[in-house]
Amino acid sequence: MNDTIKHIAIAGNIGAGKTTLTRMLAKHYNWAPHYEALDDNPYISDFYDDMHRWSFNMQMYFLNTRFNSILEIVKGNDSVIQDRTIYEDANIFAPNLHGMGLMSTRDYNTYKALFESLKSMIKAPDLLIYLRASIPTLVNLIQKRGRQYEDSIRLDYLKRLNERYEAWVSGYKDGPLLIIDVDDIDFENKPEDFGLVINKVEAQLNGLF
């Protein structure tokens, strides 16, 4: 294992399996996991009930918590694996809300300006793992985990997010990138599939492309 690796991040749409893979890789490599603090988020239920009203509050909350997570990673000595990145908020979720008319241009411009200021103070992950999943797969996984506040997620919302994820990933040049197609594997329930993921991660971390 490459000892210089300090920050691994997992990106992907809602329901793609980020938290599950974060947990499994953290256990396998003895990395410290940083999870998305959904249960502590004071806006998330209100957001899904009324996206237009709460979109700016929601995105500012995520921006702040993820920036603080990165500061913790930099200050610490552990290798950390992070569930979702600050870049997804700025490149996918906020512009998607703005594009759907769910965040005002004034609020979006304020958000973007703050993100650019914060971005200048941080560096990209040593490895970004993107979990690619189709809409049917996402819907199935979301229903399986049964979070009540996710019951009202609209299909067009997921579809737009997927389109923005693909556009972002296709132009990602900030560091090493590993794409895993979630439609084709079940790393949570099939050890052989998790083994395939480990092999891909090993190849990236050791430079065996």
Order of H and E elements: EHEHHEHHEHHEH
Radius of gyration using CA atoms only: 17 Å
Q: State the shape.
A: globular
N-to-C CA distance: 15 Å
Individual helix count: 8
- CATH uppermost class: Alpha Beta
Kindly report the spatial arrangement of strands forming the biggest sheet.
2-3-1-4-5
Look at the structure and name the CATH superfamily.
P-loop containing nucleotide triphosphate hydrolases
Tally of DSSP β-strands: 5
Question: Largest sheet, if any?
Answer: 5 strands, parallel
Runs with pLDDT <50, length 5+?
A: none
- Strand residues, percent: 5-15%
Roughly how much helix do the residues carry, as a percent range? Answer: 40-55%
Number of individual domains: 1
- For this structure, the CATH topology is Rossmann fold
Counting helices, strands and paired strands, the structural category is: alpha/beta
Structure report:
The chain is an alpha/beta fold and 209 residues long. The protein has a single domain, classed as Rossmann fold, CATH 3.40.50.300. It is built from eight helices and five strands. Strands 2-3-1-4-5 form a five-stranded parallel β-sheet, sandwiched between helices. Helix 4 crosses helix 7. The longest helix has 25 residues. It is globular. 29% of the residues are buried. The mean pLDDT is 89.
